[in-house]
Amino acid sequence: MKNDELISTGNESLDSLLSFLRRGDNVVWHTPSVEEYRKFVRSYVDEALIRGNEVHYIRFAEHDPLLEPGIEGVVLHELNASAGFESFSKLVHEHIQQAGERSYFVFDCLSSLLSHWATDSMIANLFMVTCPYLYKLKAMAYFAILKNHHSYSTINKIKNTTQLFLELYKSEDGCYVHPQKVYERSSPTMFLPHKLDSNGCFHPVANSIEATGLFYTLCSLSASEQKKLDAWDRMILQAKEVLASSDLEKQAEVFNTIAGFIIGRDERILQLAKKHFTLRDLISIKARMIGTGFIGGKAAGMLLARKILENSDDSRWGKLLEAHDSYYVGSDVFHTYIIHNGWWDLYIEHKTEKGYLEAGGKLEELMLKGKFPSEIIDQFREMLDYFGQYPIVVRSSSILEDGFGNAFAGKYESFFCSVQGAPEIRLDEFLRNLKRVYASAMCKDALEYRSSKGLAEIDEQMGILIQRVSGCFHNHYYYPHVAGVGLSYNTYVWHDDIDPDAGMLRLVAGLGTRAVNRVKDDYPRIVALNAPDMIPVNDMHDLKRFSQKQLDVLDTRVSGKNAISLYELYDEHFPFDLNKVANHDREAERMLVERGRKRKNIWILTFGRLLKQTDFTHEMKDLMNTIEAEYEYPVDIEFTVNFTEDDSYKINLVQCRPHQTNIISDTKDISAEELEKYSTIFKSKSNFMGGNVVMKIQQVVLVDPYEYSMLKEDEKYQLARAIREINQDIEETGRNTLLLGPGRWGTSTPSLGVPVNFSDINHMNAIGEIEFEEGGLMPELSFGSHFFQDLVESNIFFMALFPNSFECTFTDNTFDSFTDCFSEAVSGLNLAAKAVKVYRFDSSPLVIKSDIKSQDLLLLRRQDSSDVSLY
């Protein structure tokens, strides 16, 4: 061993005891007090300074400073631990990196972080990512944790990671140091307790008489029991004690502390929680938590909405609402999973601008393959034992999700666990789906959404909401009778008789997945709650065409949801009166008979009886208005409806979040007088979302329906690249753009429309979907879907154009008189040139004009335009 590799602690006797420190040593002092730790810190620092080394002091605790301010050679780094584990650990990492190799560090007592994070596991996680990095750089560091503050599990993780772990005892007889771990060093007495004498020398406790007396005095039974508890568990024990007392002031104090550690960081949600939850509620939530940390936005929103209804004066909700028995995987488990699998360096790389997407993509793949700590697996087993053979759904509930301003609608995943079988089969299915939800936090669409919202640098941890699926068994199928989405404020109305304040529903039979997603050849029932009879279609032909034909159900023989025809289900003795949700298609039944075929019941899912002959619409309107009044903000809910044997029904409220309402309504880019100088390019009736608009358009991007339908599937994906490139150009140039194309935008299925993600079209100002019946490409007015939520958040106007309708004048040659600028807009994608047209109107913009009252939609151009590039 070279002499320059032997580092002094500043105490010769301790150097002798430990055979000196070595480059890369992390020294953890398990101490009874910060004051005892401080004594050893000062001798270590003094020695380092004498040797001409700079010492970096990482300061974050409320306790008195370990080192006096202004010491020459000591660099102070003050960090804010309340910003959260991720931000804090990232800053620590950066300071270590800046200090460089062979540096010296002193850290405040790690136990102080409990006041910010409340959980042992994150302190262990911090050490497990910091210690190896220091060791890699051959840096020296002193740490401390307090006795009787941490669980055995936490202490063992720290002990297994560090190079030196030293127990420090203080008794009436003096001070003792007991090395528990000294990496790559040993001696006959090294791992015995050593007593510090008045001269600063250590002497081993070498006989059993003295050792027995020492440990009997220091380690009482109560202290030993206390050490088994996590700080989180001690906090809950204290809460239960306070709850049993009559000290309301103390109860409020403990409530505020626990709420800040469980509910989340959104101040508006926290204030609502403090108004409606009790300390008993928080203790109940903790009882159903796996791991520690926040339950996340989706879980908090669901619980809060239910509590608002429970606390209201309306007694209906107690009878109407189905109870829940959800579980929550705390957000800390997300970071623990990453650290346990050795991915933290990659995760830190992902938090940089350069590595944001690339490292995120790698993490997305890795998260599908990782393992969980055994103590977490044990808790998963207990949870699955509780649910038994009932299907459950594993839902994302990140700390940023479902808050005010950021819905994350459809950006993160949820997966059903439906397979019945042995415990290990159920566990395997659950773990696979849990990892898929974690991986979705790193998917490109989610990362780009966070970036677009300015959230790329903000801590984002994935909590998990685990819910029993609401529904009933029908042979091997399982599903709710009805499910849907509700909006307390109907941002986009399609008729002037609709009252936006009444709200709207998007109803489906079966699982609610068809209510939140746009599905091929299937349509939900759109309900304006003040006019439930009104539908956004023109006649019975359209009603059949734009109705739901398949149900999403769970099949207990296979994993995940499955689509099954309504006809297949009712042929198997439908488990409730189908008249409640469907009407007979008498015309189709009569045609069968006329053609000599056996008479058969044919149904159209209209939900007519539920909407017209029950109080359902009034109850849903009142339910959402009650929650909205407390939120002081429109809300967006997901729910199920299950019919009961007494011919009534139960509503299960499974999600609630603030509904983003960045409506375009009443914008005026140009005056009415100016509009008189404009002529019509095309007009349409109804079928638009966005309110009363007068909007300038500098660019029209048109995907020709016929040419698109002639492309091969791989060519359609290449065309999507052209749209993506144009979208990126719009971000740079700021051109107000109208995007028109066949079928549906925002689909991943080429047969439905151009296969783009929303992030590929999110800079458009207006989007139009064109009916092309010959190619089977149909628009969908997606009120309430995830795509709808994206449109609202991004202030994008939406229109659906039906050229075969006499009310729509859009045709194949509407833009033929204008000059195509595709080659200027897109390079290297000649394949798309025939199908994609780009028209620019920089000097004389077109105008989109819409009017809710008349339901007129117009695209206009100035009659005296002198912009030669248009023709």
UniProtKB/TrEMBL annotation:
Cofactors required: Mg(2+)
Gene3D superfamilies membership: ATP-grasp fold, A domain (3.30.1490.20)
Pyruvate phosphate dikinase AMP/ATP-binding domain: residues covered: 295-668
Keywords carried by this UniProt record: ATP-binding, Kinase, Magnesium, Metal-binding, Nucleotide-binding, Pyruvate, Transferase
InterPro entries cross-referenced by the UniProt entry: ATP_grasp_subdomain_1, PEP_synth, PPDK_AMP/ATP-bd
GO molecular function, one term: metal ion binding
Residue ranges of coiled coil: none
The reaction(s) this protein catalyses: pyruvate + ATP + H2O = phosphoenolpyruvate + AMP + phosphate + 2 H(+)
Pathways per UniProt: Carbohydrate biosynthesis; gluconeogenesis
E.C. code: 2.7.9.2
Root EC class: transferase
Keyword Nucleotide-binding: yes
SUPFAM superfamilies to which the protein is assigned, alphabetical: Glutathione synthetase ATP-binding domain-like (SSF56059)
Stated role: Catalyzes the phosphorylation of pyruvate to phosphoenolpyruvate.
Family: Belongs to the PEP-utilizing enzyme family.
Name of this chain's protein: Phosphoenolpyruvate synthase
